Prior knowledge:
Blueprint lengths: L5 E6 L4 E14 L7 E12 L3 E19 L2 E23 L2 E18 L3 H7 L4 E6 L2 E13 L4 E12 L2 E6 L2 E6 L4 E15 L1
Antiparallel strand pairs: 1-4, 2-3, 2-12, 4-5, 5-6, 6-8, 7-10, 8-9, 9-12, 10-11
Amino acid sequence: MSLIAIGSRAQAQSASHLGLGAGVNFYRPTSTDAHRSNGIGLEYRWHSFHSAWGPTFGLDWHRTGFTQKLGAIDAPLGAIQFRTILLGIGHTQHMGRLNASASLSGGYSLNRFALDDRASPTFALADVSLLGARVRNSPAARPDVSVWFDVAKRLGVGVSAAYFVARPDVIVTTNSGTYTRRVRADALEWHAGMTIGVWKDR
Length: 202
């Protein structure tokens, strides 16, 4: 599945600079009825020069596809586009050119559902007429750890791992009625990227 994602995290601390760049993202859902996805996204980093606790801000934008069990058939249903805003607290440990951070954040996801083109024909094989589907917005949470290495004064490369938690309700309408299905959208996330410092707060 193609993916357009923004996997970003920032910590607001003194003596720091803002870095912008790009990275690759890997999403591995823990549910058996959800699809894996990869993509390229915008990366930004509020890089601190000192070890400290501080508030964190993050955006998690990714797309996950789901299937629907219809007897012996695993029918493609559609994909949820998650646009999540996260706030939390974290700690950064500065060790020379190496920086390690851990954070815990929570927030709200604005979700959008896109029906799979194969959904209606596959549902019809099970004598079910699919009329439509939509998703509700949902709370979300994400613990996150990352390690960055400063290659140069304003150039950094890093990797991070996170666990995204969201359980939105999908409302499916068929010829037999409307029912609500709560999907498990939890996913392991891996990010690798590079940022260049564009603004410094000293």
